[in-house]
Structure to design on (247 residues):
């Protein structure tokens, strides 16, 4: 992440003066150009908007996508297996990211077609483009939020209950979705823990009954847990179940 930020900063430092010189404006480098009757931002302002978007993009990916549930479940799975840092965080995050791209591909394409394409073609204003483009995202979020979480944030924000789920705003849907996904991820993680917990209890009982107090039961149960996970093709089952939970 630091490398990406340094690269973006260097790009802006190198090309910024050129863009400012080419798009000089009386209002501190910010200008509006008319194209087919619609106002478009100048290049320096577009760079600022792009950098702002890149800053909040990681939070958006982690909060309003299946990335949240997937990472929580994979973390619980690694803890249940007792394999410490294997698979590594980079591997788990990479797997979660690609699964998120697979699940969110239809939603992203729908947002692009309804929001960005009309705005790029100068057919609508950016306000209308944001409203149209956020529609598919709202539909996706509303499908997985719990009514209890939505009611909580409606009460906190002193917002009247909408007539339909499509009338909910992103300021309510996003935090409600995060809470709902956290609960779902913890529920799946607890279920994953149970069979491995049974193995730990059996191994601990056996080692204690035969007097092997010096040897930690975790060291003996780890191979059995890994063997069980491999025999049942655990990765296929876990990943397949996670993907199917969003369809």
């Amino acid at each position: 992440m630091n490398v990406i930020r340094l690269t973006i900063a260097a790009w802006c430092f190198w090309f910024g003066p050129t863009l400012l010189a080419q798009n000089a404006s009386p209002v501190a480098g910010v200008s509006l150009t008319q194209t087919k009757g619609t106002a478009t931002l100048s290049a320096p302002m577009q760079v600022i908007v792009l950098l702002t978007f890149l800053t909040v993009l990681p939070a958006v990916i982690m909060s309003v996508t299946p990335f949240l549930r997937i990472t929580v479940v994979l973390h619980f799975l690694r803890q249940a297996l007792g394999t410490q840092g294997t698979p590594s965080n980079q591997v788990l995050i990479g797997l979660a990211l690609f699964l998120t791209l697979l699940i969110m591909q239809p939603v992203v394409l729908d947002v692009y077609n309804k929001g960005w394409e009309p705005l790029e073609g100068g057919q609508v204003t950016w306000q209308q483009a944001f409203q149209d483009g956020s529609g598919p995202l709202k539909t996706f979020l509303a499908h997985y939020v719990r009514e209890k979480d939505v009611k909580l944030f409606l009460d906190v924000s002193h917002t009247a209950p909408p007539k339909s789920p499509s009338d909910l705003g992103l300021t309510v849907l996003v935090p409600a979705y995060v809470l709902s996904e956290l609960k779902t991820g913890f529920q799946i993680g607890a279920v994953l823990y149970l069979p491995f917990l049974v193995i730990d209890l059996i191994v601990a009982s056996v080692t204690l009954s035969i007097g092997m107090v010096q040897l930690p039961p975790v060291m003996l149960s780890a191979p059995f847990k890994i063997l069980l996970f491999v025999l049942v093709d655990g990765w296929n089952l876990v990943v397949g179940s996670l993907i199917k939970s969003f369809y």
